[in-house]
Design brief:
Layout lengths: L2 H8 L2 H17 L5 H5 L8 H13 L3 E2 L8 E2 L1 H10 L8 H8 L9 H16 L2 E5 L7 E10 L2 E8 L4 E6 L7 H12 L7 H14 L6 H15 L1 H7 E4 L11 H15 L4 H8 L6 E4 L11 E9 L5 E10 L4 H22 L1
Family: Belongs to the HrcA family.
Organism: Roseovarius indicus
GO molecular function: DNA binding
Length: 354
């Protein structure tokens, strides 16, 4: 039994009901919940004074707090965590939400990126939060690599995959590159590349560079390393992360302090900090996971919750994730089945296109 289950088991029925009703009312309204509100909804007739005493006990346990001296109570992060783990009732996906997500699948002629972008927009629209979709890396074997100079501080790497997919990526080459050094780097890579995916190529190239360091021009070696950074480094993760609906977290009633936190969240996303962690946190097991506030380092400054689920390819390998960011008072019971269904849809989409 987890800690939440233990604490809940030790509560009496009345305390458990007060706690559940405070959290459910707060999640529905966003407002502190007072004892008089609860007296109208309790399953047994009980006085407001009795409920206040129970709420004080729950506050002592760190599950509720009072934002103002005379106000009602709201759940703490610990309280929300215990509610999610021990009392949350997850509903079935309703037909309207299902239809909105299904409607995004479109035609099979769309490329995966376009389809995922549309699914992210739909997920944001359905949940009224910000959606995150971590797209899979293109893992087909590479057929050919070419470097093209675009100026003294810009170059293009062209990746041609065996399945016909082509990617063009701009990066900053080391100083002093010449057309001949770029050709030498491309020849070096193309001699190694046959039958290898991008992820499989990195370790091979690193070993080859080490063992044949004297065989290629130093500038070409730097160019190879620069090119690798663009494939396996931060910008690769950035290209894979699709964020939609951020404006849903910014509305006229949002407190200025909360606005600053939310802006910080999206600044973090724009700067690509810890994006790889998004997949790692989903990679720890199947199914939907809920991260509340500071439980997730990536979003700790936003005061937000993340509901995230990994999706798998046809080989049951986790290759990406979908999620929703919203305030900690998300309607978790509704959001969880939406995220779960969307992850299944994306997994099927990827498998069908493979």
């Amino acid at each position: 039994m987890n800690d939440a289950g233990k604490v809940l088991e030790e509560m009496n029925a009345r305390s458990r009901e007060v706690f559940r009703r405070v959290v459910e009312t707060y999640l529905a309204t966003g407002d502190p919940v007072g004892s008089r509100t609860l007296t109208r909804n309790m399953s047994e007739k009980v006085s407001a004074a009795t409920i206040r005493n129970v709420m004080q006990d729950l506050e002592y346990l760190g599950l509720l707090n009072s934002p103002h001296v005379s106000a009602g109570r709201i759940p703490t992060q610990e309280g929300l965590r215990m509610f999610v783990d021990g009392l949350l009732e997850v509903g079935d996906l309703n037909s309207t939400d299902r239809q909105m997500i299904d409607a995004t699948l479109g035609s099979n002629s769309d490329d995966v990126g376009t389809a995922l972008d549309r699914i992210g927009s739909a997920l944001s629209g359905v949940t009224h939060g910000a959606s995150l979709v971590l797209a899979p890396k293109h893992e087909a074997p590479i057929k050919h690599i070419e470097f093209v100079g675009l100026g003294h501080d810009r170059a293009l790497v062209v990746l041609v995959f065996a399945d016909g997919h082509v990617e063009n990526r701009i990066f900053t080459p080391p100083p002093g590159q010449t057309p001949s050094s770029m050709r030498e780097a491309a020849n070096f890579l193309n001699a190694l590349v046959e039958g290898k995916t991008l992820s499989g190529l990195q370790s091979v190239i690193a070993k080859e560079i080490e063992s044949r360091r004297q065989e290629i021009d130093q500038l070409a070696q730097q160019l190879v390393e620069s090119g690798l950074a663009i494939w396996e480094g931060e910008s690769d993760n950035y290209e894979r992360l699709i964020v939609r609906g951020r404006s849903n977290l910014l509305n006229p009633e949002t407190e200025e302090e909360d606005l600053d936190r939310i802006r910080t969240l999206f600044d973090d996303l724009e700067r690509k900090r810890d994006i790889a962690e998004f997949l790692e946190l989903a990679d720890e097991g199947e199914g939907v996971r809920i991260f509340i506030g500071s439980e997730n380092k990536l979003f700790s400054l936003s005061g937000s919750s993340l509901v995230v689920s990994p999706y798998m390819n046809a080989d049951r390998k986790i290759i990406g994730a979908v999620g929703v960011i919203g305030p900690t008072r998300l309607n978790y019971g509704r959001i969880v089945p939406i995220v779960d269904y969307t992850a299944q849809i994306v997994g099927k989409l990827i498998a069908d296109r493979s």
